[in-house]
Amino acid sequence: MRIIVKKFGGSSVAGTDQMRNIAIRLNQEMEPDCRYVIVVSAMGDTTDKLTQMAQELSKKPCKRELDMLLTAGERISMSLLSIALQEHGIGSISFTGSQSGIITDSHHGNARIIDVTAFRIREELVSHKVVIVAGFQGVSREKEVTTLGRGGSDTSAVALAAYLNAEKCEIFTDVDGIYSADPRIVKSSVKLTEIDYETVLEMAYGGAKVIHPRAIEFAKKYDIPLEIKSSFTFNPGTFIIKETLLMKEKMVTSLSQKTDLYRFVIEGDALKLLNAINKANIEIFDFSINENLILIVEKEYYDDTLASLKSYQVSEVCEVQSISIIGHRVINDIGFLMQLIKDVKSAKTEIKDVKKNAVGITLIIASSEVDELLNKLHKNYIN
How many helices (H) and strands (E) does the chain have? Predict the structure, then answer.
């Protein structure tokens, strides 16, 4: 049985018109010998609005109750889209994350998928129904509703594609593919027709928001072909595959940047410090250990990080940003690294740390003005 998983993000299901368009396009494109699973995010900015409502009642809402609240957004999307499909003569049924068999650990707000038991989905696919799944959510072994963190619907889609042995997974969003840099900042960025798992994973960790890193990890592990494409044009997008010679031939493939990061310099036993961070379920962007522990976290973990370090001596806290220069050939080229550092310093940007990654180099910088630097680096190394 051929299976294709399609994931539609918040902008793709922002209103009933968009959902109606999905139903029309699916009706036109459905193949008789193929079965379809559709994973949906919450409509538009629903998640942000629900979060804001909770924060009007409490500065720090209980994470369990927040999960119960936020999962309502995807449930609304899944049921409305199912109604739209049925109106166009397409047999469909909607499932929550728990009904779909998405089993997670017990970390509310940022749970990880530990198992998938989607037997109900298989049963409905056999009966020729399109199955619509609420992304971003699952259920723990303790029967508690959980959410998967930002971009969790991507992870839901790829995990289901892996379990169902799907032919491919299509990620529909408001952009038509993956670019060599954020096209909103770097106007000369170019769309990539194909990219390998390692490269796009580095881009995602480096701040590219087109797909969540955990989704790429699932796809890489189970060799699931992905395609990032626009829900507004349905034109071919960027294919993410196991290996591409094009990526390995280029010195620099892409640039990505991440803002709203905080760098902590902490004195004390590194193992005890990391244990405290782990117990607080804080997601670390980066860290290094020399005389002190240097820890970098995203803004959403700032308060929890401070709370977990209250018993330790924090000698420095500052806001930083990162720029990742991604390419298979850059990591072992000392000449390239020397030129890169020279270019960054010529832009009067202070470099806090230089990190060698699996497929590239990440610079932690103090400057808040990264747009001009990104354009300069893109011009020098990609254009």
Answer: 12, 20
Residue 167 sits in the same domain as residue 277: no
Structural domain that includes position 10: 2-174
pTM equals: 0.87
Average pLDDT score, the chain = 91
Quote the tokens at residue 201. Answer: 């994973």
How far apart are alpha carbons 239 and 226 in whole angstroms?
Answer: 6
Q: Is residue 182 a contact partner of residue 240, using CB atoms and an 8 Å limit?
A: no
User: What does the DSSP assignment read for 206-256?
Assistant: TT--SS-HHHHHHHHHHT--EEEEETTT----EEEES--HHHHH-S--EEE
Q: Identify the domain boundary among 158, 174, 190.
A: 174
Per DSSP, 48 falls in state: H
In angstroms, how far apart are the furthest CA atoms of the chain?
66
The answer to whether position 100 is within a domain reads yes
E strand map for 92-193: 92-95, 102-104, 113-116, 130-134, 137-140, 145-147, 168-173, 178-179, 191-192
* 138 strand-pairing partners: 146
Residue 215 resides in a domain: no
* pLDDT tens by residue, 206-263: 888 888 888 999 899 999 999 999 888 878 899 998 876 666 667 888 999 998 899 9
Task: Say which CATH number the domain at 56 has.
Answer: 3.40.1160.10
- DSSP-assigned states of every residue in 84-119: HHHHTT--EEEE-TTTTTEEE-S-TTS--EEEE--H
Q: In this structure, is residue 196 part of a structural domain?
A: no
Residue 294 lies in a domain: yes
- Report whether pLDDT(56) > 70: yes
Report the distance separating Cα 242 and Cα 220, nearest Å: 7
Are 19 and 114 within one domain? yes
Q: Is the dihedral of CA 311, 317, 321, 323 positive or negative?
A: negative
Same domain, 170 and 280: no
Give the total number of structural domains in the chain: 2
